[in-house]
Amino acid sequence: LPAAVLLKDTKLMDVKLGQLGSWLAMRDFTPGGILGAIRRGEGDRYYNKYINVRKGGLGGLSMLLAGYIVLSYMWSYSHIKHDRRRKYH
């Protein structure tokens, strides 16, 4: 038999419809509680998608390369902008 899980620790997708009212009553709806829940959910999603990967692929490498290209363009933009108006003759 599975171990008993407290209703407070149950995820929303695992809550039965009859338990929804009591589950909502246990939530922390203060601004700090809402921000913490968002941060926890987004952090878990980011960690599982980009950090805790089973096998590396072309997607991660291409994101890294695209970030490098954008950063290097931003760093050299003033030089590029200066050369744009120069006439060669």
TrEMBL record:
UniProt key word Transport: yes
Designated gene of the protein: ATP5MF
Pfam family, one: WRW
Family: Belongs to the ATPase F chain family.
Membrane topology: Single-pass membrane protein
GO BP terms in the entry: proton motive force-driven mitochondrial ATP synthesis
Organism: Zonotrichia albicollis (White-throated sparrow)
The keyword Acyltransferase appears for this protein: no
Name recorded for this polypeptide: ATP synthase F(0) complex subunit f, mitochondrial
